[in-house]
Recover the amino acids of this structure.
């Protein structure tokens, strides 16, 4: 499928701020499952944009605004073509924990089985994961059961959490949004030593929604397989991927600092159209 | 001179079965201490006390102090100084110098590799997960090339001697090692107190350290800047090493700044001065990575400079030390340093490590848990003697507490046998007693590797204690490296 997407974030400050420094994870990746056909980033006040690739090869743009300003607009506009791999059958049994041992030698996986800023890897999480999977030995089947568990264990509730809510607190209150669902699924997978990573992106079917987040699980022989615990499904052609990381902290769309004693108001607008 | 009492103050001194720096293995004063002995021969108890008091007073007056965290008795304290110098003969220092140069060369190559091709991880010489799980591995700087490929510009490597007198490396401090100001001040105090003695004995000077440091900092400046501006960035007066920051800045004749004194505009760093903004090219930063730039690292940091990392990436400012060197300090990496030396230099380590067990390896873990009462356990990323268990001296409760911690996060712990550190005659409570010591030489990596002869000798002032950290009741001595062997 082909999409045109516009993602606009607007900050209004009650009094002018200065020396604003920002890093953006907004440019979608070109991967096996999608092709980026065009990308444009507009910042107001006008800035000189620079970019680099981070450790997970995501594109990061950064800029500074030294002079006083009372608003900031960050707008990305891009066209993308999605061509996701065929979903893995839900009764497939492609790999066991023993196969993972071999794959773990590839050091890039190690980052994704440790606890991270918003996920836990403690005994309580492990117990929850073991109870939810009931001795299943196949990794794919285990992942599906964990996704099913997260989907039914949590209740989707907008504004029940913040961007900095930890998976531990989500599990305690059993409410959250897509980001929290992804963090909990990541925690459970990692508790069982299954590599899991966070994906930030967009979901085209959710009209009026902002961004979306889901999870990828590493299955030996299959590579990274996407699972969306919020909708209890395997992401397809309507999912557009921006960046991957250990959790939200690695891929926050906008992060930055400024000088000034002020309150700010933030508006986010995402518009997705099929082309 | 009474031969039985080589100098009267040492009349009933006992070596108590430890390796003694002054008396060696056989109980006779070692040749490299002969001249000191002769100089001290005519010093009686009262005379010694008088000189000691004058030094203490001078230190206090000049503000040679350090801060102790978690102590309510006022922030600043004088670092206790012992008048009897520790002496290293030329031939011994020559080996130490070669060993330290070898080590820092290998560590800099290692850092370049793990932030670029990661050859040492890919071929399995070091399991990749040990690096990737390191608290101070900076993913943000993979594939970033630092100026002149130097990562650790200033390294403080702690050396100890065991009960046979062998030198061993205890740890490398490749982030912001402190203590060099005491090396310089201790020497000045000794020179004032014992005039003329240095020339007679043939002690190598240390007072060129600030010039060497400045030379190195200027060397790493961005290309094309003929007269680079260098500043020292401090977290401020509440930092335990604030005295040292002001001291070094003054000695080098450079500005000392806090984060709020700097600003970044258009990827360039400027210092706010009364005459407006002044460009800055090199920052000798004495604050940790985490606090450098709130845009990239800890957002709650009030100490750093927003945008600094951006200017660094753009190549408009150089930092010493570079970002991400903390991974080489990680005590788990320490375990691998002999392998690192072999790997990059194809040489055997000149200075060996202390035997080390990694709690993350199953066989080692079992051994550690079975021998907690005999081992020294250290947290992988702590320093200053914090987060440590001295097994042989610990209570049952302390041992149990560490057992649980190690089981919970084995990656964060290493263990070592307790090394019976060498001792040195030290003036305590009106008499001389043996107290355990270590040595922290300061290694500068610039155009070439420069090590000012000696370093900071720290002494554990509590009787029987092996912990020399200033925050844990340690003091220091002047360290003399001789031009010859006696």
């Amino acid at each position: 499928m082909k999409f045109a997407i516009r993602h606009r974030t607007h900050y209004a400050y009650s009094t002018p701020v200065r020396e604003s420094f920002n890093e953006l994870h907004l440019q979608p990746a070109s991967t096996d499952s999608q092709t980026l056909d065009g990308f444009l980033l507009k910042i107001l006040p006008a800035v000189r944009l620079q970019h680099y690739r981070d450790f997970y090869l995501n594109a990061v743009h950064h800029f500074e605004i030294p002079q006083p300003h009372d608003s900031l607009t960050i707008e990305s506009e891009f066209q993308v073509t999605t061509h996701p791999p065929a979903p893995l059958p839900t009764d497939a049994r492609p790999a066991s924990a023993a196969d993972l041992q071999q794959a773990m030698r590839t050091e890039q996986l190690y980052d994704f089985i440790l606890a991270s800023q918003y996920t836990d890897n403690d005994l309580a999480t492990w117990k929850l994961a073991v109870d939810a999977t009931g001795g299943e030995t196949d990794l794919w089947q285990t992942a599906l059961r964990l996704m099913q568990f997260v989907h039914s264990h949590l209740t989707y509730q907008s504004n029940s959490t913040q961007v900095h809510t930890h998976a531990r607190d989500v599990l305690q209150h059993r409410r959250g949004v897509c980001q929290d669902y992804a963090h909990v699924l990541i925690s459970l997978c990692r508790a069982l030593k299954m590599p899991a990573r966070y994906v930030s992106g967009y979901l085209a079917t959710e009209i009026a929604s902002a961004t979306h987040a889901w999870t990828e699980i590493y299955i030996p022989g299959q590579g990274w397989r996407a699972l969306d615990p919020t909708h209890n499904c395997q992401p397809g052609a309507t999912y557009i991927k921006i960046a991957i990381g250990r959790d939200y902290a690695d891929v926050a769309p906008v992060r930055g600092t400024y000088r000034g004693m002020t309150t700010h108001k933030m508006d986010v607008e995402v518009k997705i159209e099929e082309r | 001179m009474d031969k039985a009492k080589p100098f009267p103050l040492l009349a009933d001194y006992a070596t108590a079965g430890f390796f003694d720096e002054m008396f060696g293995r056989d109980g006779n004063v070692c040749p490299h201490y002969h001249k000191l002995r002769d100089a001290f021969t005519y010093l009686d108890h009262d005379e010694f006390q008088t000189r000691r008091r004058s030094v203490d007073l001078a230190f206090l007056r000049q503000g040679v102090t350090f801060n102790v965290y978690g102590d309510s008795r006022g922030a600043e304290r004088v670092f206790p100084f012992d008048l009897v110098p520790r002496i290293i003969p030329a031939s011994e220092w020559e080996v130490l110098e070669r060993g330290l140069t070898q080590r820092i060369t290998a560590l800099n190559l290692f850092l370049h590799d793990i932030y670029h091709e990661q050859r040492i991880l890919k071929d399995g010489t070091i399991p990749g997960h040990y690096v990737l799980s390191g608290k101070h591995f900076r993913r943000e700087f993979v594939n970033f090339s630092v100026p002149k490929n130097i990562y650790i510009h200033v390294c403080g490597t702690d050396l100890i001697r065991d009960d046979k007198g062998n030198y061993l490396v205890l740890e490398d401090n490749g982030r912001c090692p402190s203590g060099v100001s005491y090396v310089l001040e201790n020497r000045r105090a000794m020179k004032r107190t014992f005039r003329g003695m240095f020339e007679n004995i043939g002690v190598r000077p240390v007072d060129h350290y600030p010039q060497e440091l400045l030379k190195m900092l200027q060397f790493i400046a961005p290309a094309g800047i003929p007269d680079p501006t260098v500043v020292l960035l401090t977290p401020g007066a509440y930092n335990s090493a604030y005295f040292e920051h002001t001291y070094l800045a003054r000695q080098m004749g450079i500005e000392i700044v806090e984060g709020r004194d700097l600003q970044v505009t258009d990827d360039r760093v400027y210092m706010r001065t009364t005459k407006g903004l002044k460009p800055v090219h090199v920052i000798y930063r004495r604050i940790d990575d985490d606090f450098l730039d709130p845009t990239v690292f800890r957002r709650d940091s009030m100490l750093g400079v927003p945008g600094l990392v951006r200017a660094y990436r753009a190549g408009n400012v150089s930092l010493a030390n570079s970002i991400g060197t903390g991974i080489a300090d990680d005590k788990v990496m320490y375990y691998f340093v002999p392998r690192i030396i072999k790997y990059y230099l194809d040489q055997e380590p000149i200075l060996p490590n202390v035997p080390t067990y990694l709690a993350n390896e199953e066989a080692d873990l079992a051994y550690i848990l079975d021998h907690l009462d005999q081992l020294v356990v250290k947290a992988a990323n702590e320093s200053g003697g914090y987060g440590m268990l001295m097994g042989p001296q610990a209570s049952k409760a302390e041992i149990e507490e560490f057992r649980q911690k190690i089981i919970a996060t084995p990656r964060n712990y290493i263990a070592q046998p307790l090394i019976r550190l060498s001792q040195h005659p030290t003036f305590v409570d009106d008499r001389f007693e043996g107290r355990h010591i270590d040595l922290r030489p300061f290694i500068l990596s610039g155009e070439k590797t420069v090590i000012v002869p000696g370093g900071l000798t720290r002494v554990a002032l509590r009787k029987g204690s092996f912990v020399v950290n200033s925050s844990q009741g340690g003091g220091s001595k002047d360290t003399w490296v001789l031009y010859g062997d006696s």
Summary: Helices of chain A lie at 97-104, 123-133, 139-153, 167-173, 178-191, 248-251.
